[in-house]
Specification:
Layout lengths: L1 E5 L9 H13 L3 E4 H4 L7 H13 L3 E5 L5 H12 L4 E6 L6 H6 L2 E5 L2 H15 L1
Parallel strand pairs: 1-2, 1-3, 3-4, 4-5
Length: 131
């Protein structure tokens, strides 16, 4: 199984610990992670190419994990596309981050975590349900 990880491009460095926990949890469950913002760099005038690539990558994944501790419109678009394609969506955010009603409303599973250890525990349990 392959999981598309949707997260903020601009805040990616501050989310490094959480993204690493997600990748590690997926590996423990014999799943692979695909972190879109780590794979490509697009210029501002390449918005069409960026979204076409995101949609193509979501198409080849089995589920989408949205880390929304830093909300972004692009994350919501990716979640909406994944839902329209019938992919399971997992909503993740730190308990101190602002709630994303749009992504939460479109998700199949929600994980509000206290720290990386709590994220790992909850995510592994959720992945076991999906697998």
């Amino acid at each position: 199984m392959l999981a598309y990880i949707s997260t903020s491009f601009s805040k990616r460095p501050s989310l490094n610990a959480a993204v690493q926990v997600i990748v590690d949890a997926l590996n423990c469950c014999d799943m692979k992670a695909f972190v879109f913002v780590d794979q490509y760099r697009f210029e501002k005038q390449q918005e069409y190419e960026m979204m076409r690539q995101a949609f193509a990558d979501i198409d080849r994944c089995d589920l989408l994990i949205a880390e929304v501790s830093d909300k972004g419109i692009g994350i919501g678009v990716e979640v909406g596309y994944a839902k329209a394609k019938g992919k399971p969506v997992i909503y993740l955010r730190n308990e101190h981050a602002e709630h994303s009603t749009t992504v939460a409303g479109a998700s199949d599973h929600q994980i509000i975590y206290k720290n990386e250890r709590d994220l790992e525990r909850q995510l592994k349990a959720t992945l076991a349900l999906i697998k």
